[in-house]
Amino acid sequence: MKNLEELKKIRERVKRDLELRAGKHRIKIVVCLGTCGIAAGARQTMNTLVDLINSSGKTDIIVTTTGCAGFCEREPMIQVNIEDKEPVVYGKIDTEAAKEIFEKHILNGEIVEKYLFSKGK
Amino acid sequence: MKNWADHLFDIVENSIKAESTEVRIILGMNNKIFFCTISDNGIGIKDKKVIDPFVTSRKTRKVGLGIPLLKKAVEDTKGSFRITKLKKRGTKLSFETDLSHIDAKPFGDMTRALVDMIYSWPKVNIEIFVKKNNKRLLIYSGKEIKKIFNDFEIQHHEVREFIFQSLNKELNLAGINLEFGM
Question: Which fold has domain A22-119?
Answer without folding.
Answer: Glutaredoxin (3.40.30)
